Amino acid sequence: MTDAKPALDPFLEHRRLLHSTAYRMLGSVADAEDVLQDAWLSWNSADRDAVRHPKAYLVRTVTNLSLNRLTSVRATRETYIGPWLPEPLLTSPDIAEESEMADTVSTAMLVVLESLSPVERAVFLLREVFGYTHAEIADVLERPEATVRQIAHRARAHVQARRPRFDTDADQRRQVTARFLAACSGGDLNAVMEMLAPDVTAWSDGGGKVTAARRPLYGTDHVARWFLGVLAKPALTGVTLEPATINGELGILIKVGDYIGGCLTYDLADGLIQNMRFQFNPEKLSGPSGPSGPRG
Question: Considering the entire predicted model, what is its pTM?
Answer without folding.
Answer: 0.85
